[in-house]
């Protein structure tokens, strides 16, 4: 695990950085919340992509020839 503050390598699962002494533990609840937010973000991106495709299709049909 790399320290987000000083970038030094630490043992996996370390709670405190061996180099700078700062707290580097991330609670499991925050990791779960992050993963949930990433999943929701990806779902919203897919919905937006589909909506854009639908708008483009409508605009192509409306174009006068």
TrEMBL record:
Residue stretches in coiled coil: 34-61
Record's protein name: Zinc ribbon domain-containing protein
Organism: Bradyrhizobium niftali
Record key words, sorted: Coiled coil
């Amino acid at each position: 695990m790399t320290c987000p503050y000083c970038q030094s390598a630490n043992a996996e699962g370390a709670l405190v950085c061996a180099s700078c002494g700062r707290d580097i533990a991330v609670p499991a609840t925050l990791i779960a919340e992050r993963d949930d937010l990433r999943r929701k973000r990806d779902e919203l991106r897919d919905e937006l992509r589909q909506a854009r495709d639908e708008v483009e299709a409508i605009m192509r049909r409306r174009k006068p020839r």
